[in-house]
Amino acid sequence: MRIPRIFPHWRRSFSFSDSVRPGIFLTCLLATQILAIISRASAQIIDFDAEPILYSSTPSVDRVASLARRLKSGQLHLPYDTERGYLPALLKELGIAPSSQVLVFSKTSFQRDLIAPQTPRALYFNDDTYVGYVRYGEVLEFASVDPEQGSFFYTMSQDPASPAGIVRRDAECLQCHASALTKGVPGVFVRSVYSDASGQPVLRAGTFLTDHTSPLKQRWGGWYVTGTHGSERHLGNSFLTDTAGVPEAFNPAPGANLIDLKTRFSTTGYLSEHSDIVALMVMEHQTQLHNLVTAANYQARLALRDQVAIRELTKEPEGPLTEATRRRFDSAARPLLKYCLFVDETPLLSPIRGTSSFAEEFQARGPRDRKGRSLRELDLTYRLFRYPMTYLIYWDGFKKLPEVFRDHFYERLRMILLGRDTGKDFARIPPEDREAVYEILLETKEDLPESWRSANAGKPVSSGARARL
Questions:
Q1: Same domain, yes or no: 270 and 410
Q2: Inter-CA distances, 215 with 247, 257, 276, 375, 450, Å
Q3: What is the pLDDT of residues 163-183, one digit of tens each?
Q4: Angle formed by the axes of helices 431-444 and 403-417, to 10°?
Q5: Contact criterion met (CB below 8 Å) for 223 and 193
Q6: What is the pLDDT of residues 217-265, one digit of tens each?
Q7: CA dist 165 → 57, 77, 158 (Å)
Q8: Dihedral through CA 335, CA 337, CA 343, CA 346, nearest 10?
Q9: In this structure, are residues 199 and 186 in contact, taking their beta carbons and an 8 Å threshold?
């Protein structure tokens, strides 16, 4: 009998009689099956249409899907605006403020032919939904984040003669929205590109995926940006005038500290006159947070599936998490924890100020603890937020994490905030920030594990004055 090559030393070291060869064959087969499961887990390539994810075949419960069902059933009728179509009514139904408007003039979406510096694409967003509007475009675009399955993509016709229906467009959109840019899951992202005066991206000059870890000098190429940022420079509001010498020929100075877009194009066709720098920074943060939560959800479900499969093969009884599963949980939780806690945030070198009401409206949404503190409080002097913990910790995506992984995640978070996690990833978080975040979460987040509220849960030790990042 030929011994599988994954165990070549068996052939060299032993001689088996015919009576024991069937047992060895079964052992080898079992080992091969287990190694196949481990190999699949190590590959980091997720087939999200297969078990246990079933992305395409799972009915979505995201915000846009719920609205689509109301439209289809006749429970909802949207008024039509002759200037902007269904956009104002849809934003109202989705709970999205017009002040969240940000404008991108690079031709980087499927309605690219209608996008230019004179007719930028507008994006509007709240905590889990993004709406795209192109002037004179045939459709509105939606990316809506399901708490378990990740981002789903939709369009809606802007033709008043057509039925006001929303159509799911995953097949087309996932060509760009399921890649390394989105952590390998169906997701959303903000990209910064160099563009010429027509809005055409000059891709050979390079592009940047941007979030709160990105320096301002890499952000917002191809975007309009209104607001002040002192001596720092970004790529927004400007074009490549010499596409032969890129990116050295790019001059960011004309786009700096712009507060009025009326000199750039006519803003009358939009819901706001702004492309607020604070709104852009908040949107950048939350896009990759959504992707990381989805990736952690997927990885946890896959780890639990593989644990069950291995126990079935080895006839082991159900029990606590295996060491292999715990390691996979740690691998999924660590990047999410770092991002939630702004560990790698790039410090601001100058104060940031927006031009719209976005910052005021965003901060007013709470919740707040007894001291009046909120995770939505903005800093905008040294960093984006006053307290280094994402406001999206209240989002249902955290509640929908597999229960055993969710408990694992929150226990890791508790240890970090108590100062008991001595790993280098979290050493830079000042003790006073850890204490503030811990106290805010205890008072404002109802679904924390019981370990957070027990009498011996502990309390972080404050070291006095708040430190700068």
A1: no
A2: 17, 16, 18, 22, 39
A3: 778 999 988 888 889 999 999
A4: 140
A5: no
A6: 999 999 999 999 999 999 999 998 876 667 777 889 999 999 999 999 9
A7: 20, 10, 10
A8: 60
A9: no
What total number of domains does the chain contain?
A: 3
CA pair distance 79, 469, nearest whole angstrom = 48
Determine the structural domain holding residue 341 and report its residue range: 297-452
- Is 57 within the bounds of a domain? no
Burial grade of 174 (CB within 10 A; 0-12, 13-18, 19 or more): buried
Task: For the chain, give the percent of residues with pLDDT over 90.
Answer: 72
Determine the residue type at 144: S
Q: Give the whole-angstrom CA distance, residue 384 versus residue 380.
A: 5
Tokens of 169: 């467009």
Residue 51 lies in a domain: no
Structure tokens at 148: 């378990």
Bridge partners (DSSP) of residue 190 are 210
Q: Are 136 and 114 in contact (CB under 8 A)?
A: yes
Whether residues 87 and 196 share a domain: the answer is yes
User: Are 143 and 198 members of one domain?
Assistant: yes
Judge contact between 337 and 434, C-beta under 8 A. Answer: no
Same domain, 68 and 179: yes
33 and 134 both lie in a single domain? no
- DSSP classification of residue 125: E
d(CA 137, CA 419): 52
pTM score: 0.88
What tens digit of pLDDT does each residue of 306-349 get?
Answer: 999 988 887 788 888 999 999 999 999 999 999 999 999 999 99
In a domain, 56, yes or no: no
